[in-house]
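User: Hi! I have a protein structure encoded as tokens and I'd like to know what sequence might fold into it. I'm fairly new to this, so please keep things simple.
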């Protein structure tokens, strides 16, 4: 059977996106170069850490040749991203970096404990981790670009399921259902006033002739629109949050709004044009420094809610609907759904948010956690309660009960094939060397001596 070359890739990317991988100060140095893709390196320590990530989660690791192959593909994506000018905004990287550092401080208890554990200064650790985060985000963006057109139909899923011998049906790992109640840390009046004055200054500068788009590109914290000069394109009524839309629709073309506050931060809006029921606007968004927000208020609030839930005076799902500030989960009683499949059943493995995995690993079904500080995907400081609703034991796949999981497997297989095809078309664009120790690996489906791919490498 033909091996799918990127079968471990998704797991590797998921692991790299959650766990800091810089080596600690103690132990034998493993930083020997074992593969090189243009100017990108795979170190022996990278391979060992990838292997140990499976062991640490009680999972059977793939063969090291397969892991090395996935690591080389990741490096090739970085090399191709450089060739194709695929970049990730620094603000996205900074937000992810801040989230990871905050989590590490929470886990170790203090900055001093982190320094002692790793034998490096915080500045050095943060610098190393920032490079990792940026590379991981670029790889993720390349994967999305390569697989953006991949689709799966119910017929594809049925064909896949029927084509598997009954004794070879996929084994579904343990899954969990988890609820959350979220409260956000709120900026002070003083913090908001600083941002308000900045936006009013921008408004005056535009009114005096400066280019709105240039100011948005340089200052807006809405990463998606900033690169387009703050341009949000045409929007139908009801698409934007109410404060933003209400302010935008009061403007005349080219007119600037006063400072508008929404759940996303503070905005300066310029209406470009209207077209029937649609309007075209751009904005500059500023947000408070979420690293400096006080989380004691939401922590006390959630602690009180937890006490009510524990004495059965309040059901968790009702509390989530009434009090959670996370709109994506509140209406569903706090239930968290998989971003890709929409299922409420989350795989309890390396693809799960690491902080959640660690907490659930210490909880029993039916329990509610103590308030936990965390950072949202868009960088906000928040506190949440986690509710361990249920656990589904590992089992053999059933078409009806596990349709969403089977669909995800078929989609993953299709994406893997798309990456496989992409690799074979792109391999001529980069130069790859592999250490002689690994020449026995059938990397990319070839052995040492295959024309375009492998040559002697090692410490260069």
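Assistant: Happy to help. Inverse folding works backwards from shape to sequence: for each of the 460 positions I chose a residue that suits the local structure. Here it is:
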């Amino acid at each position: 059977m033909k091996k799918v070359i990127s079968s471990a890739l998704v797991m590797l990317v998921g692991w790299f996106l959650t766990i800091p991988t810089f080596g600690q100060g103690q132990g034998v140095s493993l930083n020997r170069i074992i593969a090189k893709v243009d100017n990108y390196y795979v170190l022996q320590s990278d391979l060992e850490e990838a292997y140990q990530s499976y062991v640490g989660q009680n999972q059977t690791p793939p063969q090291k040749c397969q892991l090395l192959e996935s690591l080389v593909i990741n490096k090739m994506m970085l090399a191709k991203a450089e060739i194709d000018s695929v970049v990730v905004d620094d603000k996205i990287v900074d937000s992810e970096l801040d989230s990871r550092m905050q989590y590490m401080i929470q886990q170790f208890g203090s900055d001093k404990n982190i320094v002692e554990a790793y034998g490096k200064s915080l500045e050095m650790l943060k610098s190393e981790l920032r490079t990792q985060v940026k590379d991981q985000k670029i790889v993720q963006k390349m994967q999305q670009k390569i697989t953006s057109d991949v689709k799966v139909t119910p017929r594809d899923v049925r064909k896949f399921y029927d084509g598997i011998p009954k004794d070879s049906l996929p084994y579904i790992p343990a899954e969990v259902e988890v609820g959350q109640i979220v409260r956000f840390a709120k900026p002070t009046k003083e913090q908001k006033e600083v941002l308000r004055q900045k936006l009013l200054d921008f408004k005056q500068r535009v009114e005096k002739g400066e280019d709105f788009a240039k100011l948005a590109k340089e200052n807006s914290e809405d990463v998606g629109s900033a690169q387009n000069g703050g341009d949000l394109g045409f929007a139908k009524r009801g698409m934007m949050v109410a404060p933003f839309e209400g302010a935008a629709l009061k403007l005349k073309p080219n007119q600037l709004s006063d400072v508008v506050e929404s759940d996303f931060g503070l905005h300066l809006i310029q209406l470009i044009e209207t077209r029937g029921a649609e309007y075209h606007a751009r904005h500059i968004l500023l947000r408070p420094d979420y690293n400096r927000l006080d989380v004691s208020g939401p922590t006390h609030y959630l602690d009180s809610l937890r006490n009510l839930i524990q004495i059965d005076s309040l059901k968790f799902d009702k509390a989530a609907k009434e009090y959670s500030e996370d709109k994506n989960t509140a209406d569903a009683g706090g239930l968290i759904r998989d971003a890709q499949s929409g299922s409420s059943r989350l795989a309890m493995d390396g693809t799960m948010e690491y902080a959640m995995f660690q907490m659930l690993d210490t909880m029993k079904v039916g329990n509610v956690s103590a308030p936990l500080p965390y950072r949202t995907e868009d960088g906000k400081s928040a506190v949440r309660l986690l509710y361990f609703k249920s656990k589904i034991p590992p089992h053999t796949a059933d078409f009806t009960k596990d349709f969403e999981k089977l669909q995800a497997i078929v989609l993953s297989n299709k994406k893997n094939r798309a990456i496989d095809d992409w690799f074979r078309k792109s391999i001529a664009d980069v130069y790859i060397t592999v250490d002689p120790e690994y020449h026995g690996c059938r990397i990319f489906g070839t052995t040492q001596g295959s024309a375009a791919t492998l040559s002697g490498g090692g410490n260069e």
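A useful reference point when you look it over: The CA atoms of residues 198 and 286 lie 9 Å apart. Feel free to ask if any position seems puzzling.
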